Amino acid sequence: MIKGTASTLPTPELLASSGPSPALQRLRTPDEELPAFDLGVSALEDKAQSRLPECWGHRGASASYPENTKASFIEACKQGADGIETDIHITSDNVLVLFHDPKLDRTTDGKGRIREQPWHGMLEHVRTKQAPVQPIPLFTEVLDIMLYLGNERVKLNLDCKVDNDAEKLFGLVRSVIARYDKWEQLLAPRIILGLWHPKFLGPAAHHLPYLPRYAISMSPADARRFFWDSVHGFSVYYEALATPDGQKFLAECRSHGKGVCAWTVNTREGMRECVRWGLGSCITDKPDMWREVKAEFQNDYYRAVKPTLQTYLLPFVNKKAWWFDIAKQTKEERQYLEKEGGKFEGWEGFKVGLQIARAE
């Protein structure tokens, strides 16, 4: 429930929507009938199934709708996603928008850098190239979706792009979510900050102590070296996690209570591997595929979790899993992050507290 005047910006019809939004209604958890208690095999299976990773829709349900749009976010929820992963940028007039690239050109009819253009009179009119044509969503719009009746448990993984000014970004995020009544209870526990650069750690902890922090990385070594003591979990490139060092890193996270998420997992076998690895979450363009894989585990967990021939062959036939390809992409990613955000060196000893503030 936002305090103040709601936006009057017209939005095209959203084909993924199933009706008017009750976003501003008071939330109430529907009554649920408790299942019968059972000490037999079903109890063991329930315990095993409780270990299934959460599914976070990558830029929404981006295999079905234009990425990072309101329609894509709604569709991800309809397909059964446990969370929405999206990216955030600041416009030149300090409006928070959800968009992946620093520039508009790849996915929209607009051109140029987002941070150099205002929302009002400019970016509000930009539309996606892909149909159904959509506007760029505001940060407030995904928060509203999280408050739709039925979405009370949907999480938001906010990928904080390195080209943002960290102090300004987290200050604006704080001011926006604070407009919602009871945001500390209804929103804060469900928003996860994804950080690419260690210089974002301090501002994130200062402005948003209510929100858990995940380091995003293609390199387990960099994640361990620059973020370990200051984050609650890690969002790591799936192919990097499949390497020997990735598996060692995963074991270290497990022993220290760190959450681990893998991205971007768009194959059934990859999703099954996320279960076998005991991950907390996986990011996918295809929440509907995850729903089908999840059903396999719910129907017969021990059969579904058993490795197959495909499990062993996949690392050899998947080019992205070859060590030299991972090394190349990791190097390029690090170069980009340091170009936009400055050198990582010198941040090794920096720490911020892990205690998450809770409102009374």
Automatic annotation (TrEMBL):
InterPro entries: GP_PDE_dom (IPR030395), PLC-like_Pdiesterase_TIM-brl (IPR017946). Residues 1-24 are annotated as: Disordered. Residues 53-294 form the GP-PDE domain. It holds the Pfam family GDPD. Residues 1-10 have a biased composition (Polar residues). SUPFAM superfamilies: PLC-like phosphodiesterases (SSF51695). One of its GO terms (biological process) is lipid metabolic process. PROSITE patterns: GP_PDE. One of its GO terms (molecular function) is phosphoric diester hydrolase activity. This is PLC-like phosphodiesterase. It comes from Dioszegia hungarica.
